[in-house]
Amino acid sequence: MTRLTIVTALTASSSALAVRDLCAATGAASLSYRRTGQGLDRIGRGGIGPGGGAVESLTTGTGGIAEVVRADLAELFDDPWTGCEAGGVPVVVALPTGMDADLVLDLVAERAGRTGGAGGADAADRVDGDGHASGVEVESVVAAVELDGLEDRLWSPVTMADAGLATVPGDERTVGEFVVGALNWCDTYVVRAGARPVRRGLSLLEHLAPRARATSSDAAAGLPKPEPGRYDRREVRSRTRPGAVVVPVRDDSGGVYRTVVCRAERPLHPTRLAERIGAIAAGCVWSRGVLWVASVPQWRVAWAGVGPEVGFEPAGTWLADGGDGGGDGGDSGEAPLESLLALGSPHGDRGTVLALTGDEVDAAEVAELLADCELDDDELALGADGWAALPDPFALRTTLAAV
Questions:
Q1: Contacts from 103-106 at CB under 8 Å and sequence distance 24+?
Q2: 3-class DSSP assignment, residue 49
Q3: What is the second-level CATH architecture of the domain 2-240?
Q4: C-alpha of 3 from chain center
Q5: What is the model's pLDDT at position 234?
Q6: Rounded distance, CA 391 to CA 397, Å?
Q7: Residue 127: closest CA among 93, 95, 102
Q8: I need a labelling partner for 298 at 20 to 30 A (CA). Which of 17, 38, 162, 276 fits?
Q9: Helices 198-208 and 175-185 meet at what angle, rounded to 10?
Q10: CA separation for the pair 182, 185 (Å, rounded)
């Protein structure tokens, strides 16, 4: 069984340092994909890869860098890696800057289903719980993070494509959206401290990745030394599903950053929501949750915001309406626990829940803004048939009809 630690990063320097520290902690071999002016190099160390680890240039095509990396890893998965499979040596795989870890995690899951044959379902179950299949086990997913510039990146409107960091064609996410995504998928992050105040950056990371283990080899960070964590596919899929509300269990941030959770029991009027969305998101570096919008009452509408950018996407349908409750983000199709527990409420699992992270978020102000968006008694009495005549400023009816 080859045990993989997957490293994602926005910068080559933070990735290289994370790989160095992880290999030193575990005796792992490494396989790094490095962008070049002409394309992509694969660099193996510790006897891994064709030729025992020589540098090899890979040809990139119109499908993007991610497609090349996935194809290369798939080929290596099918050909036991020199010195690793037999000896049980772990392997640290550093993805090219800007590539999402889930693209490799999906590859491992696809491999499980393909090689499982008649027992494919059992293989998929093993991937769900343990992250492994057919000689390849994902032991850990690590995000390499630089504290310097972290906040600036979250607020930046620059897209991955404009920054030259896209690994798939047409990646119009902002750089901040990539950073938040990488932290959501990881079980461990490796911090590279810089010139800016460490305490502020670490406080932010505690709220961006509350389920991940913080590590660093920089003494200034005051964190444990880097080592792989424990990847759990089912847990990760659950917290990365659209509309998931992930918050720290305990706020140890010392008051620099905070996360507030606000709720609304009634459906939201779409016009009043459109008028207040900017005020709700103001000052938030990360906002997320699920909305009950009267213009599309049967749908769970996921709110996803990083810095000044806020977007909506479908997050399933309400359990109370006989829907899927948003699923669990994994392979079982089970509704999330919070949806099941809410079924006894007056509106069932329907409702709005938002979590907002920032250094000056005012919970009372956000709660008042949400309350202003709720339908009044007369509007509520109209029911779904009456709500069908409400304006649709976010074009949700059109967007969700295409799902």
A1: 103/66, 103/69, 103/70, 103/167, 104/6, 104/69, 104/70, 104/73, 104/138, 105/6, 105/131, 105/138, 105/141, 105/185, 105/233
A2: coil
A3: 3-Layer(aba) Sandwich (3.40)
A4: 22
A5: 86
A6: 10
A7: 102
A8: 276
A9: 70
A10: 5
- Helix, coil or strand: residue 329: coil
8 A C-beta contact, residue 10 and residue 148: no
Mutual angle of helices 233-240 and 175-185, in 10-degree steps? 140
**Of 218, 238, 72, 243, which is closest to residue 145 (Cα–Cα)?**
218
Strands, sheet with 309-317, edge to edge from the N-terminal-most edge strand: 258-264, 352-358, 286-291, 299-306, 309-317
Cα(271)–Cα(277) distance, integer angstroms: 10
CATH fold of 258-401: Hypothetical Protein Yjia; Chain: A;domain 2 (3.30.1220)
Could you state, in order of their start, the residue ranges of all structural domains in the chain?
A: 2-240, 258-401
pLDDT single digits (tens) 358-382: 999 999 999 999 999 999 999 999 9
**H or E element that contains 67:** helix 65-78
- The rounded mean pLDDT for the chain is 85
> Which tokens is 311 given?
């977007």
CA distance 354 to 367: 10
User: For the chain, which ranges sit under pLDDT 50?
Assistant: 83, 86, 115-133, 328-332
Residue 205, helix vs strand vs coil: helix
Report the amino acid identity of residue 87.
G
Say how far residue 253 (Cα) sits from the centre of its chain: 21
